[in-house]
Amino acid sequence: MTIHARSIPKAWMAWSSGKDSAWALHTARQLGEVDIVGIMTTVTSVYDRISMHGVRRSLLEAQANALGLPLYCVEIPAPCSNQDYEERMRAAMQVAQAQEVSHIVFGDLFLEDLKEYRERNLAQVGMQAYFPLWKRDTASLAQEMIDGGLKAHLTCIDPRKMPVSLAGHAFNTKLLNSLPDLVDPCGENGEFHSFVWDGPMFQHPIPVQVGETVERDGFVFTDLLPLESPATVSSV
Asked: How far apart are CA 138 and CA 189, in angstroms?
């Protein structure tokens, strides 16, 4: 009798450049239920930066290189209507399906409406969503990331929920202890976004230095600049 190995579906990672998507990718690789063959990121064309996170495209490309995965950028305008966004995502899904990709991996943690939105839109084009971190306790998950070697900086914060002084701060235990009581430790409610420059998902670190902090459209963004030597990485 011939025993056939189980076919593992191909997937793209919905990559934000931040800690949740990075840890979701790492976890998905460990679980082995999907084969992640690429990362997909929305980039605001006029700024040439990752949408919401404000991270430079060059650093995104460096992450893809460190992951050893091809990068698929979904270019969106600014401002971007929901219709514009969904049209561009449908086009990206056509590219994915042409490569026999059937799943998209997300780093979402507990927002039910967002999960349902993703599942509904993917179902319309015959694809599935995969959430390897879903319903994890965010306090323990944040500490697990730090203990597991993930290194990141906050690139965008909501000043209505967090002190501006935390903009650009390293994602570490000191930061977790500094967060206001109502802020989720993983920033799942949009309190903050991050850029991961090292961790077990990468083949090598992406050294950065913290640059200028500016306020735009009601949010505070901290620019990150590439460095050549890991020894000079900021760990504030």
From this structure: 11
Domain assignment present for 2:
no
Tokens in use for 132? 């390897």
pTM above threshold 0.85: yes
CATH number of the domain that residue 130 is part of: 3.40.50.620
Torsion of CA 143, 149, 154, 155, to 10 degrees: -140
Quick one: tokens of 224?
A: 């990150």
Amino acid identity for residue 25 in this structure: L
CA distance 166 to 179: 9
Tokens of 156: 């965008």
Mean pLDDT by 10 residues, the chain (236 residues): 68 98 98 98 94 93 98 92 93 97 98 97 97 98 98 98 97 97 96 98 97 95 82 35
User: How many other C-beta atoms can be found within 10 angstroms of the C-beta atom of residue 219?
Assistant: 18
Q: Distance between CA atoms of 25 and 221, rounded to whole angstroms?
A: 25
Buried/exposed 102-128: b ≥16 CB within 10 Å, e otherwise: bbbbbbbbbeeeebeebbebbeeeebe
Place of tokens 């994890």: 136
